[in-house]
């Protein structure tokens, strides 16, 4: 006797762990993604571009930009709600979630945590509305996993700063109004609030990507960019500044990747129920069911982990190495789920008619950015042994 | 301006709806409950009116405990307060009893405008707004695709097959709205967080001053004797196109008296 199928996360009764408010916030984002993102995102992906300005305004109206920050026009939700929003956005597309993460958790967070009152008043309300877009420049062509070696520098010239160098792989770089740029100074690494219309600043779009195609990625070039004395973020010195921002974004990714995985798994289950080979649905074969069961377990365990990290974060107890547990596990498992689902869709699995290969390709970027799989492994290894093994 | 909006919790539009075998009433537990779609338009219209002219929006819902979520949804969109009529005695109420309870809850609170959706998606009777208006002795401006408030004059465009009728009445009035009227907003995150701090009064049948025997399933004027599941769809007729496919389809349609 067959029974009505249940979705993987329903099987885990995940909703039972959420408050009514968290579910309401999630539902609003889910609905937005269904109506505004899913119908169009495959075309954006194919075209290799997104209507980023328009989307930023729509996200501003929705309230997701910097949603977990307090004041300055931000909603001030809890961390779990922010995670759930990231998950729904990434169920649409990792590139779309990236736009929001970079804006809220990297650029706005940097200003919110380390900026002066003037920085906050000038940028945060407009960024929350999506009227101003931000980007975050840490990575350089020669310094990815090891940003401490960065070459971009800011030197004093009278009261001013002169910023020189370049940054690579910068999400939102070509459309940003403001860039948070990390540079070497005489006092170590400092962050700078750089309006992108400052003379000497330029951004070049990176083409030929096969991943995160519904996202804009850029190289930033600083050719003697003259900044006033107060362009520096006063609240932090050293690598811990950018790392604190990355922790915010990585937390969102621990949830976000599960959204992509969920979308793949749900697509594959419904596909397998419809698709018949050898006179019965491929969902009726034990090998297919084993795949579904295994993937559901990983998805559900990842979700429980993400929620646990979220509750810790809301109690201000979350440690960076715990964020690494979430980023490492959930990006890795989401990618594995996407690949398995890709196979279940057979030939249809390689087209943009279904979301699966798009998620799969996107997750390759997510696996790499915000700390590669290996970097998070080393963080966890150090936490367990006390021995840093990075170099 | 003081506006009431009557909102109903209904099973999710996409969910399979079932009647309960014990008493032939809708199984409201088996599907997720949502704010009746047209009522969202009514809430939106109320919010737009007070955003333009100032005032207060109170949402009123009759339904079991979990209809509280529906009230909260309307509050998160921006309504100011809620009234929840909740009482086991109301289970199985028909439109007559529902309208009596709503009328009692609305009465004497000084509402200038009482907004409704024009139809629920579960029972779809489209009668509650008119019944409430009759009980309160208020003019009914139903099926509005546009609402204007000018001092104490309320003007609507009533949707019609040929276009619309313009009608007006003096406040207080009952208005029911159709889908064409606006595009409801998403609740904002701030709205969602503020909603749980907004006041919601709960009222029982006794609070309303109604006799329990006049409401609920036993008091309903009509009863469901039996119900049956819809028969499964019969397999369609497949016509293979051997060059004369068009003629065969035309023959089929004329046999069925479609053409
Ligand atoms: C689409 C996209 C968007 C991005 N957006 C941004 C952005 O907005 N802002 C920003 O600053 N950056 C951004 N990045 C950059 C991203 O964070 C880096 O790509 C990432 O940190 C890895 O750096 P890398 O590419 O230089 O790889 P590398 O550091 O060269 O790593 C290559 C490989 O070597 C491994 N490896 C390195 N060191 C060790 C070691 N000690 N032990 C073992 N293995 C090691 C790595 O794990 C990896 O597998 C983005 C990247 C992509 C792809
Ligand atoms: C399948 C089914 C069949 C039914 N058949 C009958 C029947 O034949 N005869 C009968 O008398 N009753 C019937 N009922 C009961 C009916 O659902 C209730 O009386 C209901 O509260 C009002 O009817 P409606 O949903 O059709 O409202 P409608 O008149 O379609 O609703 C119009 C508007 O009235 C408001 N409204 C309606 N209900 C409420 C509420 N509970 N709280 C706040 N506002 C509300 C909303 O603004 C709504 O948009 C039936 C119910 C079901 C589920």
Key descriptive features of the protein:
heterodimer; A: 391 residues; alpha+beta; four-stranded antiparallel sheet; three-stranded mixed sheet; B: 259 residues; alpha/beta; Rossmann fold; nine-stranded mixed sheet; 7 helices; 11 strands; 25% strand; binds flavin-adenine dinucleotide
Write up what this structure looks like.
The complex is a heterodimer of chains A (391) and B (259). Chain A is α+β, with helices and mostly antiparallel strands and 391 residues long. Chain A has 11 helices and 9 strands. In chain A, the strands form 3 sheets. Chain A has a 4-stranded antiparallel beta sheet, covered by helices on one side. In chain A, strands 1-4-5 form a 3-stranded mixed beta sheet, covered by helices on one side. Chain A has a two-stranded antiparallel sheet with strand order 8-9. In chain A, a hairpin with a 2-residue loop joins strand 4 and strand 5 (188-195). The longest helix of chain A has 35 residues, at 240-274. Chain A is globular. The termini of chain A are far apart. Chain B has one domain: 3-Layer(aba) Sandwich (Rossmann fold). In chain B, the strands form 2 sheets. Chain B has a 9-stranded mixed beta sheet, sandwiched between helices. Chain B has a two-stranded antiparallel sheet with strand order 2-3. In chain B, strand 4, helix 2 (67-77) and strand 5 form a beta-alpha-beta unit. The termini of chain B are far apart. The mean pLDDT of chain B is 94. The complex binds flavin-adenine dinucleotide (2 copies). One flavin-adenine dinucleotide binds at residues 6-8, 26, 36, 38-39, 60-63, 93-96, 98, 102, 116-117, 119-120, 122-129, 222 of chain B.
How are the secondary structure elements laid out?
The complex is a heterodimer of chains A (391) and B (259).
Chain A: H1 8-11, H2 20-47, H3 52-62, H4 79-92, H5 94-114, H6 117-129, E1 134-137, E2 153-157, E3 160-171, E4 178-185, E5 188-195, E6 201-205, E7 217-227, H7 240-274, E8 276-277, E9 280-281, H8 286-314, H9 320-344, H10 356-368, H11 373-385
Parallel strand pairs in A: 1-4
Antiparallel strand pairs in A: 2-3, 3-7, 4-5, 6-7, 8-9
Chain B: E1 2-6, E2 9-11, E3 33-35, H1 37-53, E4 56-62, H2 67-77, E5 81-85, H3 95-106, E6 113-117, H4 128-136, E7 140-150, E8 153-160, E9 163-170, E10 173-177, H5 189-195, E11 200-203, H6 205-208, H7 245-255
Parallel strand pairs in B: 1-4, 1-6, 4-5, 5-11, 6-10, 7-10
Antiparallel strand pairs in B: 2-3, 7-8, 8-9
Helix pairs in contact in B: 2-5, 3-4
Bound molecules: flavin-adenine dinucleotide (FAD) (2 copies).
